[in-house]
Amino acid sequence: GENVEQHPSTLSVQEGDSAVIKCTYSDSASNYFPWYKQELGKRPQLIIDIRSNVGEKKDQRIAVTLNKTAKHFSLHITETQPEDSAVYFCAAHRPIQGAQKLVFGQGTRLTINP
Amino acid sequence: DTEVTQTPKHLVMGMTNKKSLKCEQHMGHRAMYWYKQKAKKPPELMFVYSYEKLSINESVPSRFSPECPNSSLLNLHLHALQPEDSALYLCASSQGLLRSGVRGAYEQYFGPGTRLTVT
After folding, report:
1. For residue B110, which of A21, A102, A12 has the smallest C-alpha distance?
2. pLDDT tens string A33-55
3. Are the beta carbons of B48 and A100 closer than 8 angstroms?
4. Beta-carbon separation of A34 and B107 below 8 A
5. Beta-sheet pairing, A108-113 with A99-104
6. CA B27/CA A23 separation, integer angstroms
7. How far is A59 from chain B (nearest CA, A)?
8. What is the torsion angle, in degrees rounded to the nearest 10, for the CA atoms of residue B51, residue B5, residue B67 and residue B63?
9. pLDDT value, residue B2
10. Sign of the dihedral through C-alpha B48, B50, B54, B59
């Protein structure tokens, strides 16, 4: 079945430095890869996504890259700020049975140290 | 309106109770989802409704019963739950697969969740 692996499980960086979170997926039919940020006690919030026909996408300080051949995708956060501290989840999506299914990675707890 | 709303925010119920969770969206989305999230874990898909029809049931026990009365509403009926069912229950919505060529069609937006405790 489909599987998404996410690394690292925890990440601590100094404010202003960059953070990178990596995911791999197993299902070659996956065609959409969102990233969610979840702060403590709050809902997962979509922060950036990428479709399988695109290799890279950037939105201000965050960027996502996708390597379809290797089935890897990564989240890059530059110039990190304390408010970036949260749990980040990657996910892989595929259409199934007339609907959509997201399979999530296990999450990365990112801590930004002032 | 660009939000998914859920009620109640918190729910405590005994194992013999019957209760319902409610979810609502007014974004015109035609796919709605129920997820269960345990502490320090990712959301785990339970059910998917596509155009008001149940499309995916991820082998969820029958003590959880979903209902989609119309395209804006999604309910989750709870009966005879177990303590291990205590979790955050998240609703989400997206535009729907028939609009897959439309920009943003795959984006799923989550509600704030219902924190359920079964005693």
Report:
1. A102
2. 999 999 999 999 999 999 988 89
3. yes
4. yes
5. unpaired
6. 30
7. 15
8. 140
9. 64
10. negative
